[in-house]
# Entry
Amino acid sequence: MKVTIPVPSDFNFWRTVYSHGWCSLQPFEVKKEEGTLRRVFEFSSGKVLLAEISHPARSALTIHIVNSTTTQKEKQELLEQIKTCLRLDEDYSEFYREAEKHRSFRWVPKLGAGRLLRAPTVFEDVVKMICTTNCSWALTETMVENLCKKLGYLILDTRYSFPRPESIADCSEKFLRKEIRAGYRSPYLLELSKRIAKGEVNIEEWRTSALPTDELYKEVRSVKGVGPYAAANLLKLLGCYDYLGIDSWCRQKFFGIHKNGRKASDRVIEKFYEPFGKWRGLFFWLDVTKHWYEKKIPF
DNA sequence: GCGTCCAGGTCTACC
DNA sequence: GGTAGACCTGGACGC
# Structure
């Protein structure tokens, strides 16, 4: 079964898919040879399905639902989730106007860069972000793969959904440490999942929050295991770009691009991007990943 | 193959 | 408010 979704004129499918590392973390999977982004989606009813997303025509995405028939309501829910992941409902015209003002960022609107891929749920984004902290990318991939394979739903014998908060909440800390390889992050994942499962917090509300960014930042930081780096990058996935989210990789890139490899304090980096106002976090990310955009994609 | 060192963010205790 | 040390894993390195 195939359906289509119209996309904004400034939308670039592959630049969004490859906007950061999420596309290589399960349940996302890029099929380069087929030119598709695949993912297991889960509905509010608990039903799961595999969808392949491609962009054969300029004005619309094509969604191929692989393993299931869907009701009209489920189809609508799937399309909403895909729009959420690819940021199709967000207006980037103001950001692109700002980019045009800076000579070194005029490439951004030309390439349709700026939309950052995200998960259908805030929960998945937060869990994944915690799994990126204080470890190599390879370990992040291992943790996320284990979460899906050991706690998600299996379909088509090979593909897994991302686990619900209840599934993680039911685990022991020992299981998360030893089987998921989450290490000391395990109590953080457990606490968050339990609070959500019990209904004590609803982090899904963050995507529609009317709070000023500083207040939202404090709320995101209130999750144990989410420090300045993780909170800033989660805010970017919530559509707020006021914080940079500096990690060691970005730091090194900045030093290489702007300081001839010499080190500088984070305050210097923050000062550098202050002129970009409320979009500075996004300009910072695009600056340190500009070299990605010099390659043809899909890679 | 084994042991050691180090990098990678966040938390907590302490000053 | 700032800082030190612990947390855990995997890769690099030396033996």
Summary: The two ends of chain A are 28 Å apart (CA to CA).
